[in-house]
């Protein structure tokens, strides 16, 4: 075969990857039908199934799309948590608004190179405009910068790296440097510190009050003592919406201390940040004083998993950590550095993730998002009131939409609440998760899914009651 014959031969098989209009229509039609069935029945489906997944290995053979959808339904959707369900009240619930999925489809098919402005000015600008919008929401100055990430963990990583580089925390300095946080900080913070070589810094757990908020007077005392001992305080991590209890640390007061002692002030608002758009706005007073802030649209703006954001005031610190170039990047020379997300994040080639927030905001505007957040705040109140009348004990009034409860069994309280949790998981109609608060095993309720409605809470209460009866009256 000559080269032309070889190319023609290979093309016969290779072109299968570039399916034609008729094939596309057929696959889209099947996908739409599948999604309609899924969404039309989402309230009837269990939110959690304790099942193993299997039969997903790749064997290089071709399969019918209809068979693939069937496998997807059985082995992915019907195993574990249905995170797009309103019945997901565990951990921090996910979202999955449809407009974001359409954005992902557009982004995937057209596939612009969003990391570098030269390669796709439009895509890079959309990323920047999403960051600009976030800067407005959190009243960060124009001069601040930011980047869209895969989620809160990576956002924390980027922020702490910038803090580390601004304060030059390396080598011998690491073990004398001090980070202030509370026991309620999300574990991705400690993980990020470890990843970036700060495992040996001193972590000071500042005592919390009875609402799980950092106690500022202890923070101040602790910093003063550390300074007296010749240590190097450098980073305060506050949380605006703790994972376990939805608590918002006293941000404004902490900001003042950070300023006084010249420390980097980081706010983890991954879960709670977007409640700044709600009637809880006051709780976020002073958030604009943070040196870095993380927030997750895949939590508080109900997007599918895969969109976090980090805002950072000190552009130089961020660039110090992330700006690199290679000989093959000649075409990008001379551009304003921060127009290219690649210069301010660990990623070069990346999913065009900005579109999945930009498009829904353009399509829906902001009001439906605000209404949805406000609704979650009311639903947590509603659920707490009802649980109280059912005889459950409750944690303190939450700052946001996460709270917890336990049943006051006369004997073996923890063991019996674990049994109750087990029954709830076996039931699966609604998914709840558990935690330990003050040494006590408790069941959490995290209300953030956009499909969680009053009806969902009524279903949840009926399910909890049914499971409780099983624990109280074992067969
Ligand atoms: C307060 C807080 N910070 C950070 C994270 C980590 O975010 P992600 O899971 O998107 O990496 C979470 C996750 O639930 C969180 O609740």
Blueprint of the fold:
Elements: H1 3-14, H2 21-40, E1 48-49, H3 65-77, E2 80-81, H4 98-110, H5 121-137, E3 145-149, H6 152-166, E4 177-181, H7 187-195, E5 202-205, H8 216-228, E6 232-239, H9 251-261, E7 264-269, E8 292-295, H10 297-300, E9 308-312, H11 315-322, H12 355-364, H13 367-389, E10 393-394, E11 402-406, H14 413-427, E12 433-437, E13 440-446, H15 454-472
Parallel strand pairs: 4-5, 4-6, 6-7, 7-8
Antiparallel strand pairs: 1-2, 3-9, 8-9, 10-11, 11-13, 12-13
Helix pairs in contact: 4-12, 6-7, 6-11, 8-9, 13-15, 14-15
Bound molecules: pyridoxal-5'-phosphate.
Protein architecture, described:
It contains 15 helices and 13 strands. It folds into 2 domains: 261 residues, Aspartate Aminotransferase, domain 2 (3-Layer(aba) Sandwich), CATH 3.40.640; 106 residues, Alpha-Beta Complex (Aspartate Aminotransferase, domain 1). Helix 4 crosses helix 12, helix 6 packs across helix 7 and helix 13 runs parallel beside helix 15. With 475 residues, the chain is of the alpha/beta class. The relative contact order is 0.14. Helix content is 43%, strand content 13%. The strands form 3 sheets. It has a 7-stranded mixed beta sheet, sandwiched between helices. Pyridoxal-5'-phosphate binds next to helix 6.
């Amino acid at each position: 075969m000559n080269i032309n014959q070889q190319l023609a031969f290979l093309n016969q098989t290779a072109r299968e990857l570039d399916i034609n209009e008729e094939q596309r229509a057929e696959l889209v039609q099947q996908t739409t039908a599948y999604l309609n069935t899924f969404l039309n029945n989402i309230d009837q489906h269990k939110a959690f199934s304790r099942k193993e997944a299997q039969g997903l290995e790749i064997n290089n053979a071709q399969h019918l799309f209809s068979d693939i959808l069937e496998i997807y339904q059985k082995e992915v959707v019907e195993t574990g948590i249905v995170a797009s369900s309103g019945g997901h009240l565990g951990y921090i619930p996910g979202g999955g608004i449809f407009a974001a999925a359409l954005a992902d489809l557009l982004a995937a098919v057209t596939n612009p190179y969003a990391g570098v402005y030269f390669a796709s000015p439009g895509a890079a600008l959309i990323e920047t405009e999403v960051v600009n919008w976030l800067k407005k929401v959190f009243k960060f100055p124009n001069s601040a910068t930011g980047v869209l990430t895969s989620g809160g963990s990576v956002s924390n990583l980027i922020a702490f790296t910038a803090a580390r580089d601004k304060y030059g925390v390396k080598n011998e300095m690491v073990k004398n440097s001090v980070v202030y946080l509370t026991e309620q900080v999300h574990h991705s913070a400690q993980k990020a510190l470890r990843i970036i070589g700060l495992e040996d810094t001193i972590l000071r757990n500042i005592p919390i009050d009875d609402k799980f908020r950092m106690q500022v007077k202890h923070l101040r005392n602790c910093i003063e003592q550390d300074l007296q001992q010749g240590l190097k305080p450098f980073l305060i991590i506050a949380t605006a919406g703790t994972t376990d209890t939805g608590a918002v640390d006293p941000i404004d007061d902490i900001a003042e201390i950070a300023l006084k002692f010249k420390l980097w002030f980081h706010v983890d608002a991954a879960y709670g940040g977007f409640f700044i758009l709600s009637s809880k706005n006051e709780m976020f007073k002073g958030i604009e004083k943070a040196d870095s802030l993380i927030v997750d649209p895949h939590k508080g703006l109900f997007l599918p998993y895969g969109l976090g954001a980090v805002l950072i005031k000190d552009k130089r610190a961020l660039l110090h950590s992330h700006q690199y170039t290679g000989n093959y990047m000649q075409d990008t020379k001379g551009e304003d550095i921060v127009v290219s997300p690649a210069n301010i994040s660990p990623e070069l080639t990346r999913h065009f993730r900005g579109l999945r927030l930009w498009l829904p905001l353009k399509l829906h505007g902001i009001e439906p998002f605000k209404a949805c957040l406000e609704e979650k705040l009311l639903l947590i109140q509603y659920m707490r009131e009802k649980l109280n009348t059912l005889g459950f004990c409750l944690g303190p009034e939450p700052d946001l939409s996460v709270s917890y409860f336990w049943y006051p069994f006369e004997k073996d309280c923890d063991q019996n609440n674990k049994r109750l949790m087990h029954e709830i998981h076996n039931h699966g109609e609604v998914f709840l998760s558990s935690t330990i608060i003050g040494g006590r095993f408790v069941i959490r309720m995290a209300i953030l899914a956009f499909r969680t409605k009053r009806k969902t809470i009524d279903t949840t209460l009926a399910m909890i009651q049914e499971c409780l009866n099983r624990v109280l009256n074992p067969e």
